[in-house]
């Protein structure tokens, strides 16, 4: 995607998976890599009978209201800000994501030490308020797929910079991040909630969730 540009076309070489996935709105995009780019696109019709048949077979399996479709080819109409994928203040969420991608162990320790003891409860309360307000169909969180992406980025940083002690096996045999990475992820998740969905917490709860971020990185720019 680094070489594509507005006015260009992206086309699959063959009519088989993995298909291009085209979402109806930025907030529904499933982001699993970072950094990335966001484009408004126009779907091109299938060029052959074989392509039409293959696409028809796969698109009939998509449930109504899923918020996406598959395509063989798209024209790139406009480049948009990736911030649109991450909620009310996606620019702030992108700063948190960039921080997670570059997180090192000393910074993870600082975040863990600076995390407010009430931050977890404040974040859960914001989540509950969002659920109670009947979120738009298809949106997995107040900041789109930002939380899942954040977890992946912190995990990648722990594996790259934390050494063998950065991961432990829990009681069910699953790997999980050890300290300080576990608490650092929580601090960054809470900052993403506080800054990315500022209408959900009250001002005091927002400051509680953002306390570790402010201590380590300063106040988020406007």
What do these coordinates show?
The structure is a single chain. The protein has 222 residues and is α+β, with helices and mostly antiparallel strands. Helices cover 42% and strands 14% of the residues. It has 7 helices and 7 strands. The chain has helices at residues 49-59, 90-101, 105-114, 119-132, 146-161, 181-196, 203-217, and strands at residues 9-11, 20-23, 38-43, 68-71, 73-80, 167-169, 175-177. The strands form 3 sheets. Strands 1-5-3 form a 3-stranded antiparallel beta sheet, with no helix packed on it. It has a two-stranded antiparallel ribbon with strand order 2-4. A two-stranded antiparallel sheet has the order 6-7. β6 (167-169) and β7 form a beta hairpin. The mean pLDDT is 93.
Short description, anyone?
With 222 residues, the protein is of the alpha+beta class. The protein has helices at 49-59, 90-101, 105-114, 119-132, 146-161, 181-196, 203-217, and strands at residues 9-11, 20-23, 38-43, 68-71, 73-80, 167-169, 175-177.
Mean pLDDT: 93
Distance between termini? 29 Å
Instruction: Tell me, briefly, the overall form.
Output: globular
The major β-sheet equals: 3 strands, antiparallel
Low-confidence runs: none
- Helix count from the secondary structure assignment: 7
Rg (CA only): 20 Å
**What is the helix/strand order?**
EEEHEEHHHHEEHH
The percent of residues in helical segments reads 40-55%
Total strands:
7
The computed structural class is alpha+beta
Strand order of the largest sheet: 1-5-3
Strand content: 5-15%
């Amino acid at each position: 995607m680094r070489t594509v540009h507005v006015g260009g076309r992206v086309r699959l070489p063959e009519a088989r998976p993995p298909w291009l996935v085209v979402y109806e709105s930025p907030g529904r995009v499933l982001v699993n890599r970072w950094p990335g780019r966001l484009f408004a696109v126009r779907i091109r019709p299938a060029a052959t009978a074989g392509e039409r048949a293959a696409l028809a077979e796969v698109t009939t399996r998509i449930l109504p209201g899923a918020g996406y479709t598959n395509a063989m080819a798209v024209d790139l109409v406009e480049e948009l800000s990736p911030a649109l994928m991450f909620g009310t203040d996606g620019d702030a969420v992108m700063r948190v994501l960039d921080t997670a991608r570059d997180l090192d162990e000393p910074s993870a320790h600082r975040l863990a030490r600076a995390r407010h003891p009430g931050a977890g409860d404040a974040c859960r309360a914001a989540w509950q308020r969002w659920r109670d307000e009947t979120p738009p169909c298809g949106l997995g969180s107040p900041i789109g797929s930002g939380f899942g992406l954040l977890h992946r980025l912190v995990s990648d940083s722990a594996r790259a910079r934390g050494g063998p002690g950065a991961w432990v096996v829990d009681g069910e045999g699953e790997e999980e991040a050890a300290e300080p990475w576990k608490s650092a992820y929580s601090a960054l998740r809470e900052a993403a909630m506080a800054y990315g969905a500022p209408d959900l917490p009250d001002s005091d709860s927002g400051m509680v969730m953002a306390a570790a971020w402010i201590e380590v990185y300063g106040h988020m720019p406007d």
